[in-house]
Task: inverse folding
């Protein structure tokens, strides 16, 4: 059968965000399609798995490697890209893809590119809702619970913290006071100053946009500073954290196990959302 190639870009390793299981899931989907005689029965899908590390420069390099293959027949048979995962890595390849007429479909990039920019990114699609749609859920929740004041704590270079600006406008137009968007550098480890600013401004409903490694530090400091649910504080955290992102003992055990593995061992990429433990 003629082969149709899909260039897959996944966060297999890296410091920002890891989800090696996504590559396995994508491969399973390809195999299911190939086994189904009712779908593309005259062709065979082939998925190439590439590690984008959730880094913009690495993702662009992988895109170039896939597009500029020396195998011209493979280039002509490449139907598109699956990925990348992180929003801050999408825009560069989404912009370039139109020059190669190559479809880019992201499975988890919720931000960066708005659907309003469809004319600028005609070959970019995603299988997940745009994060700007969160505004409807936030506003409905706040109205239901009678909350009229909210703040945000965001990490520089976070996955999609830029949508907070749009969210701020929506809050204000719905009579919800947006106190502040307190940003902190990605290398920060002492969170006391940032939480103190929020506390001094009277913010008790806080939208957080940061990676799991920072979330562990922030929640630890929130406990020390009396900014937990017990004191009437509410934190909205990203939904893409691992189920046990807060379990330091478990993370430490996993880290010790993976360090004992040989480099290149597939199990070595088991830890997700790496960073400070």
Result:
């Amino acid at each position: 059968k003629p082969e149709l190639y899909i260039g897959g870009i996944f966060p297999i390793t890296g410091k920002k965000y890891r989800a090696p299981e996504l590559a396995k899931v994508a491969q399973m989907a390809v195999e299911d399609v190939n086994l189904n005689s009712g779908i593309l029965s005259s062709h065979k899908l082939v998925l190439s798995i590439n590690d984008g590390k959730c880094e913009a420069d690495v993702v662009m390099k992988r895109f170039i490697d896939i597009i500029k293959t020396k195998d011209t027949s493979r280039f002509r048979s490449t139907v598109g890209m699956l990925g990348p995962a992180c929003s801050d890595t999408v825009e560069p390849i989404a912009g370039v893809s139109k020059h190669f007429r190559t479809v880019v479909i992201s499975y988890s990039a919720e931000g960066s590119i708005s659907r309003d920019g469809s004319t600028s990114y005609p070959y970019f699609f995603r299988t997940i809702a745009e994060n700007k749609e969160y505004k409807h859920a936030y506003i409905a929740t706040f109205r239901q619970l009678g909350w009229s004041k909210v703040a945000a704590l965001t990490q520089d270079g976070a996955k999609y913290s830029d949508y907070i600006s749009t969210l701020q406008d929506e809050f204000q137009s719905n009579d919800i006071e947006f106190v502040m968007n307190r940003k902190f550098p990605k290398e920060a480890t002492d969170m006391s100053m940032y939480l103190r600013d929020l506390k001094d401004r009277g913010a008790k409903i806080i939208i957080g946009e940061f990676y799991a490694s920072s979330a562990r530090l922030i929640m630890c400091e929130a406990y020390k500073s009396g900014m937990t649910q017990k004191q009437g504080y509410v934190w909205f955290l990203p939904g893409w954290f691992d189920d046990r992102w807060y379990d330091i003992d478990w993370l430490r055990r996993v880290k010790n196990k993976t360090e004992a593995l040989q480099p290149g061992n597939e199990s070595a990429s088991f830890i997700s959302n790496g960073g400070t433990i």
